[in-house]
Amino acid sequence: MNPSSPLENVRIVLSHTSHPGNIGATARAMKTMGLTSLYLINPKQFPDKEAEIRAVNARDILNRITICTHLDQALDNTVLAAAMTARPRGLSHAMFNSRQGAQELLNYAQKHPVALVFGAETSGLTTAEVNKCQIIVHIPTNPDYSSLNLASAVQVMAYELRMALLGIEPPPQAPGTPASFNEIELFYHHLEQAMITSDFLDPEKPRRLMQRIRRLYARARLEKEEVSILRGILSALEKKI
């Protein structure tokens, strides 16, 4: 069943949150803008009274929270994941500011689940977590003082998503269905194993080959049929090997 609003297809994902108050404040920020889906990855403290206090009248969102042990669970069946980070990254994915990123997410959320991923308060997202996403989104803050509280960052993005919704246009007729996170991860695993088998990739000295490959296919925004074709090619080559 299709959601009544694309915002219902947007997951806010908080990874390794240290302070339960930020979870409650995030729930409140989400509810003011019509977002309802909150995922937590290994929160340090939750459930917690402080989260309930900070949520105020958004405790219904706290009650529906999905708690995960790793990012793959939170991104299950999404077709686009955006990593929220302000740090410069080597081999970076396509980068969007907060307004552009919100629009990009909403374009896909009209028909499919998407995710906006935030890192821990002190350290942010790890490189491995960023590599699981297809795009990077940053909030263009004052370069002399760019530090934003986690819940404040969620509020900014929730507002931008709301504004993107108000100006949304009917989705164009897509040529195909986007591949899900799960399908793409299986493809990466299949490709990595094929490269190891063919001696193209030395698992003892991988360098950053898989990171580069993830960046390449993140730009392509693979469709389901394209993933099937690529995996079919790999399977055929494996038989020859």
TrEMBL record:
Record keywords, A-Z: Cytoplasm, Methyltransferase, S-adenosyl-L-methionine, Transferase, tRNA processing
Q: Which GO terms describe its molecular function?
A: RNA binding; tRNA (cytidine(32)-2'-O)-methyltransferase activity; tRNA (cytidine(32)/uridine(32)-2'-O)-methyltransferase activity
Q: Where is the tRNA/rRNA methyltransferase SpoU type domain?
A: 10-159
Q: Name one GO biological process term.
A: tRNA nucleoside ribose methylation
The EC number(s) given in the record are 2.1.1.200
Domain of life where this protein originates: Bacteria
| Annotated Gene Ontology cellular component terms | cytosol
What reaction is this protein's catalytic activity?
uridine(32) in tRNA + S-adenosyl-L-methionine = 2'-O-methyluridine(32) in tRNA + S-adenosyl-L-homocysteine + H(+); cytidine(32) in tRNA + S-adenosyl-L-methionine = 2'-O-methylcytidine(32) in tRNA + S-adenosyl-L-homocysteine + H(+)
Q: Known Pfam families for this protein? A: SpoU_methylase (PF00588)
Q: Where in the cell is it found?
A: Cytoplasm
Q: Which InterPro entries match?
A: Alpha/beta_knot_MTases (IPR029028), RNA_MeTrfase_TrmJ/LasT (IPR004384), SpoU_MeTrfase (IPR001537), tRNA_m1G_MTases_N (IPR029026)
Q: What does this protein do?
A: Catalyzes the formation of 2'O-methylated cytidine (Cm32) or 2'O-methylated uridine (Um32) at position 32 in tRNA.
Q: How does it assemble?
A: Homodimer.
**Family the entry assigns:** Belongs to the class IV-like SAM-binding methyltransferase superfamily. RNA methyltransferase TrmH family.
Q: Please give the name of this protein.
A: tRNA (cytidine/uridine-2'-O-)-methyltransferase TrmJ
Q: Which organism is it from?
A: Nitrosomonas cryotolerans ATCC 49181
- Gene responsible for this protein: trmJ
